[in-house]
Specification:
Layout lengths: L16 E8 L6 H9 L17 E6 L3 E7 L8 H17 L2 E7 H6 L2 H14 L6 E6 L11 H10 L4 E4 L8 H10 L18 H16 L8 E11 L4 E10 L2 H8 L4 H18 L2 E10 L7 H7 L5
Parallel strand pairs: 1-3, 1-4, 4-5, 5-6, 8-9
Antiparallel strand pairs: 2-3, 7-8
Length: 317
Amino acid sequence: MTKNKDSLPNADSSEFRCGWVALMGPPNSGKSTLLNSILGQKVTIVTPRPQTTRNQIVGILTTAEAQVIFMDTPGIAQARGALSKTMIQAVWQSLSQAECILLLLDTSLYINHQEYLEKDMTPLIEALANDVRPVIVAANKIDLFADKARMLPFIDKIKGMLPKAEIFPISAQTGDGLPDLVNLIISKLPHAPAMFPEDQISTASLRFMSAEIIREKLFLHLRQELPYGVAVEIESWKEETERNLTVIHAVIYVSKSSHKGMVIGEGGSLIKEIGMEARKEIEELVGTRVHLELWVKVQENWTENQAFLHQLGNYAQ
C-alpha cells in the first residue's frame, strides 16, 4: 500500500517514536486477547483452545506520540508436521524484525505448575541468549488469583532466566496494567516517523479477517481435535455498492471425510449457526450487509500438504 506522508501522524516530529514489537509466548498465554485489548478492536481471533493463531497478525496502535506495530505470532510449541513448522517460522520471522520483544506468560499457570515454566521458556531463552534488544515480560492473567504474593517465586525464576528483561504484571482480560505496559513499550522504541496511516489498525485484508472470523466460530463450536483439522478460504468476494451488500463465498476444508458431517451438523444445523454468527461479526467489520455462503470440502491430510498450505496463503508467510 502506498502511504501518503500527509496521512501519517506527526510525520515531521523528531520526538515521535515508531517500531515493531514481537508479541511472543507459549500457546494460550493470551497474546491475541492482549493485542485486541490494547487496540480496542478485534484484529485477531480468540478461543479457549491453544494455538488458535496460525500465522503472523500485525496490529497497529497509533497515539499522538508513537506508533507501535505489534506482530502477534502463533504460540511457541514443539513443531509437529508441516502446518506446525510454518507456524513456528512465523514466530522466528517476527523475532528477527522486531525492535522490542514482548513476551507474554500465563502467570496463573506457572504459579500452580512451576514444572512447566522451564520447558516452555527453553526455546525463548536460547533465541534471546545473545540478543541486545529490549525484552519485556508481561506476566498475564493476574486477575485469576487474589494473593499477588504468590507471584514472587515466579518472578524470581524469570529474572534468573532473562536477567535483562523488565517484568510487568498485567491482565489482558480486564485491562489491568495495560496503559502502563503500553507506555513502557513506547519508551523502548526508536525515534522514527510513523509507517502507517493513523486510522489503520492492521495489515490484514478484510478477506483474511473474514476467513479468520469463520474459523473462530468453528473453533468455538467444534470439540476435541477437529478444529485443528479445519481451514477456511474465501473463494469469492463481491461488493454490491448500490445494495450496500457484500457477497462472500467461503470454503471450509476438513482433513477427513468423517469430519465433513460433523461440521455440517444434523440437517445442516451447525454450519447454519456458524454462518449466522460469522455473518453478524463480518457485517460489523466491513460496514455493509453481508450474504455469506459456506461450503465444506474434504482435503485429505491438508495440514501435511505444504503446497496446499501455500495455496491457502493464510498459513504460510
